[in-house]
Amino acid sequence: MERKLRVWVDHGACVGNGTCLTIAPAVFVHNADRQSEVADPAGDSAARILAAAESCPVSAIHVEDAASGERLFP
Amino acid sequence: MVAPELDDMFAPDVIADPYSHYARLRTSDPVHWNDRYQLWVITRHDDIVWMIRHHELFSSAVIRNDPRPPYPPVDPGDLSLVGYVRAFRADQLVEHDRPGHLAMRQVMHGYFTPKAMESWRPFVRRAVTELLDEARARGRMDVLTDLAAPLPVRVITQMMGVPPEDREHLRELADKLLHINRGEPDRLRPLTEGMRGMLEYVEPLVESRLARPGADFISVLAQGEKAGVLTRHQVLVNTALLLFAGHETTMNLICNGTLALIRHPDQWARLRADPAAAAPAATEECLRYDPPVKSTQRIASADVELRGKQLRKHDRIRWAIASANRDPAVFPEPDRFDIGRHPNPHVAFGAGIHFCLGVTLARLEGQEVFRALAERFPALHLESDRLEYQPSIQFRSLKALPVGWS
């Protein structure tokens, strides 16, 4: 059983680079301002969501374990 | 209506102080048709962010999509070099749109993640210490030639995986590559020398990395060639791009930031009070207040209406990052240098899909330099009251920055 994640994007930091959309397109989408938003935090594996977060050039993606609240990134 | 003289982007007073020039444009005509150079000049923060993020409307493939001659004009005798420069630049990452841009960037982006770049901090800190030790021993320093230029060259040559004895050669090539987007009529000669020199220098390195891949940046590109994503020419010119893009921009960040700190003694005192803690926000303010890149270019991919102006497909566009960073609609008291400014949504690194790949490295180089200067040279001051800038509309580049500390 894959663990559930809480994922959100800090819009004060997001520059709309879109790297997360190319790594986990089922999880991240662009809003009308071309900033990333989470469409479905269960849309891909935890490993891929973390890879997207680590690839963000400004570390705008925050990832927590939904059950324990443990911070996984950044 | 804007006075015609506002269209002379290379006028000496505009090169010396672009901010007053941009402020006049931003207030009177933020989407301005520059008749002299036949291009749109965009100066508001919100317009620029919107345009940068709509990459499908504003192409980065300026070279491929713009057959018009370079501006300002080059020496007629050098027109034969234009084709060489265009072919070289057209293969660089920054001159691509999707989908090609995405494929190229995916080859490189793993190398540039924040975590991977942060691991360079000890190397950068050591290099800054060594360069400042040498300056202290000499008793004087031109921040440009003694610190700001050699630091990024050290980092980039290490990234390329080449020996320290090659640094001087690469620095000479980097200096020639700096003539890109400058205004001198004879600029294509040193530029092509730098480009040819880079191709000759890098080609055998690519061969050796294909045979024995390492952890260096050329190996990363060579793997891209092996996977069929990059051509050999693309590997070569993107290695040159790493040198060029990382050199001039970092140089300008260090010089412009140091100058701003010296010219604002209250802010210099704030940094000196706690250099390690204050350096990150101070670096962001340096990037906002006097950014390394003043403006970048695009070419319209479609007809677009903006603030009642009709931009046509294939129109040249130049957006002024340096103006966006001083837009009072976004930054309270935009002309005030405040190293604690927060939030600070400057666009010194651009935005969108072309957002600076080297952002984390640039930030940490700035942080390490400003911190070390504050810790080691508290009495830093200018040794010249006449500072000059290179005649570029793209880069905000000092020609020299002599300082003393006693």
Q: Which percent band covers the strand fraction of chain B?
A: 5-15%
Classified by CATH, the class of chain A is Alpha Beta
Can you tell me the residue ranges of chain B where pLDDT is under 50 for at least 5 consecutive residues?
A: none
- Give the fraction of residues assigned to helices of chain B: 40-55%
* Shape, principal axes of CA atoms of chain B: globular
Taking all Cα atoms into account, the compactness measure Rg of chain A is: 11 Å
Mean pLDDT of chain B: 94
Question: How far apart are the termini of chain B?
Answer: 50 Å
CATH level-3 fold name of chain A: Alpha-Beta Plaits
Structural class of chain A: alpha+beta
Strand order of the largest sheet of chain B: 1-2-8-5-3
Largest sheet descriptor of chain B: 5 strands, mixed
Number of helices of chain B: 18
> Secondary-structure element sequence of chain A?
EHEEHEE
Main pleated sheet of chain A: 3 strands, antiparallel
Overall pLDDT of chain A: 95
Structure annotation, total helices of chain A: 2
Low-confidence stretches of chain A: none
Number of strands of chain B: 10
Structural class of chain B: alpha+beta
Name the overall outline of chain A: globular
Blueprint of the fold:
The complex is a heterodimer of chains A (about 70) and B (about 400).
Chain A: E1 5-9, H1 19-23, E2 28-30, E3 36-38, H2 46-55, E4 61-65, E5 71-73
Antiparallel strand pairs in A: 1-4, 2-3, 4-5
Chain B: H1 12-16, H2 18-28, E1 31-34, E2 39-42, H3 45-53, E3 58-59, H4 62-65, H5 79-90, H6 100-108, H7 114-118, H8 121-138, E4 141-142, H9 143-148, H10 150-160, H11 167-177, H12 188-211, H13 217-226, H14 232-263, H15 265-273, H16 275-289, E5 295-300, E6 304-306, E7 309-311, E8 316-320, H17 321-324, H18 359-376, E9 381-382, E10 402-404
Parallel strand pairs in B: 2-8
Antiparallel strand pairs in B: 1-2, 3-5, 4-10, 5-8, 6-7, 9-10
